[in-house]
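Chain A, query sequence.
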Amino acid sequence: PLLSICIPTYNRARYLKDALDSIIKQINENNKDKVEICISDNASEDNTEELIKEYQKKSPIPIIYHRNKKNMGADYNYLKVVEIANGEYCWLLGSDDIIEDGGIDTVLSEIEKNKDVDIFTFDRYIYSKNLNNKHTKEVDEPKTRKLGKDYIFNNKIECLKYSSGNWGYISVIVVNRKKWLSVKGYEKWIGSAYVHVYIIYSLIKQGSKVKFINKHLVGWRSDNDSFLHELGEYRRFKIDINYVYIAEDVFGKDSEEYKIVKDMLINRSGFWGRITGAKFKGLSYKFYVNAFKDLFPIYKDHPKFWLWYVPLMIIPSFVYRFIRFIIKGKW
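Chain A, predicted structure.
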């Protein structure tokens, strides 16, 4: 097939059904021989296996299913789902996300028209957890959205200036499978939850062509961060810091590429929002001490660290709650 839709999953049966339905309803006579679904299951303890067997019986396209003997972690699952695929390109899809109507035909058309492009990315809609409400407004507006058109990046610097904040979210990645498998040195980032970022950054460094498709092709189910639920606030914060260390590993600490990624992260309100979120939840001082220790080596020379992040850590939690009470009437 031309395209493998690759879904890593763990205990997401209640959401996986929506993802599979969003794919299968788009399959028709013209595209059914071009698409397959691949699922790597991290030893789920819910009814994921039974659900997939049910879909395998009724799906008009192949569903390849692999089940790990034990939970190997998210990174291993990302690697495994691409490994079991047969497609020329792989579309990574979070198991709680959906593909928007027309998304599959759009990606197939783009691949067929742009055989020299190794990586495609695109925009997303944001949904409520139950998929009832849809919008595009985001706290951190993707810079690619500002392009306002389909665009093939001319070089890696331009690519990173616009897309460096996109790659953490797997569902906006379509990548040439052979290119993905050619990347070496990712082993040290297994356990970071961002092994795929290392692979994408490595391909960008090597000169792979990247195209932004100016369409909303996936739907992201918000308020459903599995890493936050499983790891807690501090370890989830650490995952985002890995973004910078991966860029350092791939591009080098003195590179312009590294600086672009470093600046992108500290300016993301979603990143410093983890500190304010911890304040509202009343987390102990240990969270902020550890956060300071993690951020200081990277950002000690960055004004925003001292003028914004440090004050956010120092201000007592009751001040945050008081401000929220004044604004929203909720303590």
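The chain has two domains: 3-224, 228-328. The chain is about 45% helix and 15% strand.
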